[in-house]
Amino acid sequence: MSSLSRELVFLILQFLDEEKFKETVHKLEQESGFFFNMKYFEDQVQAGEWDEVERYLSGFTKVEDNRYSMKIFFEIRKQKYLEALDRDDRPKAVEILVKDLKVFASFNEDLFKEITQLLTLDNFRQNEQLSKYGDTKSARSIMLVELKKLIEANPLFRDKLTLPAFKASRLRTLINQSLNWQHQLCKNPRPNPDIKTLFTDHSCASSNGTRGPPPNNAPLAGPVPKPGGVFHPLGGHGLFQPVVSPPPNAIAGWMSSPNPSMPHGAVAAASPGLIQASSSAAFLKHPRTPPGGPGMEYQTADSEHLLKRLRAGQPDEVSFSGSTHLPNICSPDDLPKTVVRSLSQGSNVMSMDFHPLQQTVLLVGTNVGDISISEVGSRERLALKTFKVWDISACSMPFQVSSIAYTTLVKDATISVNRCAWGPDGSILGVAFSKHIVQIYTYSPAGELRQHLEIDAHVGGVNDIAFAHPNKQLCIVTCGDDKTIKVWDAVAGRKQYTFEGHEAPVYSVCPHYKENIQFIFSTAIDGKIKAWLYDSLGSRVDYDAPGLWCTTMAYSADGTRLFSCGTSKEGESHLVEWNESEGAIKRTYSGFRKRSLGVVQFDTTRNHFLAAGDEFQIKFWDMDNTNMLTYTDGDGGLPASPRLRFNKEGSLLAVTTSDNGIKILANFDGQRMLRMLETRAFDGSRGHSEAVNTKPAITGALGPIANVSASASHVVERTDRIPQSMSLGNLATVDSSRAADVKPRIDTTEKNKSWKFSDITDSSQFKTLKLPDSLPPSKIVRLLYTNSGLAVLALASNAVHKLWKWQRNDRNPTGKSSATSVPQLWQPSNGALMSNDVNEAKPADDSVACIALSKNDSYVMSASGGKVSLFNMMTFKVMTTFMPPPPAATYLAFHPQDNNIIAIGMEDSTIQIYNVRVDEVKTKLKGHQKRISGLAFSQSLNILLCVWIIDGWEKKKSRPIQPPPGQQTPLVGETKVQFHNNQSHLLVVHESQIAVYDAQLECLRAWYPRDSLSAPISSGIYSCDGLLIFAGFCDGAVGIFDAESLSLRCRIAPSAYISSPASSTFPVVIAAHPSDGNQFGLGMSDGAVHVMEPSDGDAKWGSGSAASQENGIASSSQPSETPSRNLSFATGFAPLKAKPLETILDVERAKKKSPEELADIWDDFHLGRGHIGISMKAKLYHLLEQRASDCRYFVIPVWKGSGYTTMFVQVEMPHMLFTGLEDYKARGTQAAPYLTALYYKEFAESKDLVLVRGDIVFTSKLSDEEAKWLMEAAHSFYLNDVRYKLVERFNKQTREFEFKDVLQALEMPIL
């Protein structure tokens, strides 16, 4: 069949689908064999329509076509057979066995015999391999997953799983165009042609022998290809709806005319020089339904009904949208539903946005005006900015007046982040605040935020912010309470447009473009939706959103489908898809609570799924199905209407929690990606840890902009030669288009690293600073950082507080605490000290001190044996005192959600829950035997240790700490506790041990002092990201441990930071920086305070010589493993643990098979499982091994649609790794592989056979078919004598290597 005939079939399929001829659609799909409708196939399998399933498949493949097809049919018939046995329908089972399954006996007789034996069992689940068979529904779902993989891998289905991209109603458009041409060529064209049939060509009959007006006086429907012309839509009653060109029809209906009731235009504050399409202005002036102009009529009752619906604005399904006929092959399993991270924010999260390129970098804005950027993989907070007006004098007078409260140095709790968003390339971000202003930052790959623009944008709140490119120039779009939308130049901050016309505060904006038309949708809190072009002609749309209140709009990732989600004042939520061409609702999704508790938020992903937060859950929909697909409660702890945000690939989902935190949910790909990050515990620099899924940076208008030119469909490598001295270690600085033909050079120094903990004995090996102190020295008993990270607060044994503040300067532009910048010992101008009340009957040095800081750093609560005092941190004044002894307070902890509630541990072993506001003890908890030395809240577990349930303060569990092995005497001394960021693990620190407990108070692992750290432990604390534990020892040493395994990563000797070490000088207390996971402070017994950080060369503790050697006794129910580092090419990545062959294959049975049978079994076993199974002759393996030892690296392109992406191959037998070259250039040896291969030599001697197993690490990067081709291509380059010359040239003669030779060898085009 010719290409045009094939395309006509696709157009007919679209037409049939639009006309709801469903059975005919699938019949044509099957008979033509051009398009395999995966959604229809899934539905038939789930329904158990086996005859229809095989009939539909028969249009595309037969049993005997190939091994993929054979396995597809076998799985279907096996399932049908098992279901018959499960129904105890033996006659039917026998019939299936004889008629359907016997055909497979000739291929695998043993398997057929095993299937036949199932008839002899009372329950086929007695067969070991079928013991986990569940019910019919779950079995069909499991089978479907495998069938989809087999179909996608089957070459017979190539290019048949997706429809070509073409606009809706394309066949109708072509007919319209044909009719237009026929009328243009008509000898007697009439103003109102009457077309009654399509069976014959149109011709206007003459009236009384006179000619009608010439054709150019009668403009006709549809896009007549007439240069420079402007084409009017069909008459309002035409069956075939208008399709306007060159502007896309997706905006035609929505923006056909300015609304006459809205006289306000767009006021251009400056001449932006925006370029509009030549025909767009005229196009937009045409009325949607010309009142009486000429038009062709081809009417039916359906077209009249359609027009009635459109005029009434009824939310019916009115047309087929784009290419939605083709169901996406995504599965519900692709949704991120597994909780993998819990991040604490400390304040209510108002907005989130994932970085567009760095898939694990999350931007967060809170209700106290803070914004932070976190790497969710490593749990590292990269940046934190508290709310501050950069230049109050530049702001409007109303804002200056409203900010008086702020200028009095009291945090204004009403300044909230309404929206924060990344720019399109991630080099810039914007923050919209609840009062007047927006702030724009530039962002570097190293995690640094720099102030760029502060704009006094709106009167009142700024409700939304977004980025757009009206004429290839980056602009900022904002909306606010002043009922306007404004457009700003992103470079200089100049206002370009003000759009007026809304009659209520504007709630959200959604900039978008279709081909060469740029526009903005906006919604107001009165439910009005308007649309604007970048001109002065006012809004083009005035529609009502469902619910008539707070609504947001968003496009699918490919920009073809428009959705909105809103909640009415009564709590009714509406999630809908719009038919853009008509401005009507196409479908409404069901599944919301009748009365939502808050404004429901939503997001889209993978061009296939919708998600919304409702009813303490995240609910998911398939875009093509109005019924809810599935939901998750995120393991509990979600608010009534959680906020949510997908990353770009849809592998991660950030969800807000009711305890001011964020949960990260992941699908299988997301979990793999995060595991890759976890294996990089020994990264050499922060830049590496942040570069997941990024490309080398280039310079843009606003600073570094990630190079996205290497996407799979557009990757083109040049063959320019690079000097031999170039290594992959510095390729990130080279234009990515020149890097394909460079031989990667690996720094072999990593190969010889000693994998022992680093022992720091000199101050030159790290950064340390002793803080200046002019006050009399006294032992530091409590130490903490302020939540902003700008200051350190210490409490001495003499009841005096000391506060050090860092100032902004050239060496410390952020003003954050640093070991390289000396802070100021701060005191108010009156020189007052912040001193606690003391117990006259008991010296302060003998009293137990305690301290706690409020979340906004405004107040500190403290006690030193006397009354509990509440201090103002700015003035050092005592706000109030309470709870005079006895008993004295010994520990303080603020409630995580209410600063007015404090848990106070007492000397008499009780815990008092005190409300500061009403000066009242709400509850007294009893259950301990001795004074309280540590308290910790868990927000997600809702508990306070002992363990108490904080809702009703009911004691849940208690457990004594176990002494070290061999110690008989009971433990004495203080015990301190701290919850991990995941809120489920608990750090317990006693002088005899560091231990990690779970929520049930079961000890998971413990570390006991010995060897170089043999002194008692004085203090310990988690790092802010929860990855490390900092511990002090009574001999002055400091230990830094891996939080997961408790392995020692680094030891700091007393001589490294104490000028004259004495046995009595040691760190009494340790404090961890709130946002820098590698900085900590020490409060010393001699009254000194030290701040410590790794050296500039290491960036992380222990990264100079990573710590995997235990220097204590590890005790754990699950012993920790140290990743193997014996492969020099994979020093930054722990390869997937080699799976023993006996866990994959029954080795004893395999010994009885011939080499050919064993190879087939191996191949078939891995088919469609996300793994690749191939085999090779032993002599070929030995040749591969020999050549790989001499030439370990190569590059191979993989074809991706219209371009190719290049893979970097690293070989050290029996391993072979395949990594994206762009990732390797960005991360060097820290780059995670996309595919790993392992060679099994167990049958090399007996059967002359080596089995090879490939594991795809990122299924989003490589398909099964691509991975198998890649492995076979790698073998061909090493085993083919001619091709191996290219490998030798790449490794030994870099100057002679040209990438085009590889392309020619693979018969790929040189682009």
UniProtKB/TrEMBL annotation:
Q: Which Pfam families match?
A: ATP11, LisH_TPL, TPR1-like_2nd, WD40, zf_topless
- The annotated regions of Polar residues compositional bias extend over 1105-1125
Q: Where is this region: Disordered?
A: 1093-1125
Query: What stretches of residues are WD repeats?
Result: 455-498
UniProt superkingdom: Eukaryota
One annotated Gene Ontology cellular component of this protein: mitochondrion
Family annotation (Gene3D superfamilies): YVTN repeat-like/Quinoprotein amine dehydrogenase (2.130.10.10)
Q: What is the lineage of its organism?
A: Eukaryota, Viridiplantae, Streptophyta, Embryophyta, Tracheophyta
Q: This protein is called what?
A: CTLH domain-containing protein
Keywords on record: Repeat, WD repeat
Task: Kindly state a single biological-process term from the GO annotations of this entry.
Answer: regulation of DNA-templated transcription
Annotated CTLH domain ranges read 34-92
